Amino acid sequence: MKKILRFSLGFIIAAITIGMLIPFMIVSMFLGKRRKNAFNMWVSCLFTPLINKVGQLVNS
User: Fold this and answer.
1) In whole angstroms, how far apart are CA 47 and each of 1, 5, 27, 56?
2) By percentage, how much of the chain surpasses pLDDT 90?
3) Are 13 and 50 a contacting pair, CB within 8 Å?
4) Can you list the pairs that 13-20 forms with residues at least 24 positions away whose Cβ atoms lie under 8 Å?
5) Which keywords does this chain's UniProt record carry (predicted)?
6) Crossing angle of helices 36-59/2-31, nearest 10°?
């Protein structure tokens, strides 16, 4: 039961984060390729720890 709860919690966190990132992705597409590298760096800095956290929640 606890494992299912942890998994669903991780899934909800991931879904919220993806939902928050979609507008930023649309904005970056409109801004063009000039700022793409900075945006990719920002996404990787934000997204990598979050994915690791979700993975830890699912595995534990």
Assistant:
1) 28, 22, 17, 14
2) 0
3) yes
4) 13/50, 13/53, 13/54, 13/57, 14/50, 14/51, 14/54, 17/47, 17/50
5) Membrane, Transmembrane, Transmembrane helix
6) 180
In this structure, what token pair is assigned to residue 53? 């956290």
Tokens 């930023």 -> residue: 24
pTM value is: 0.40
CA distance 47 to 18: 9
User: Can you read off the two tokens belonging to residue 36?
Assistant: 């793409």
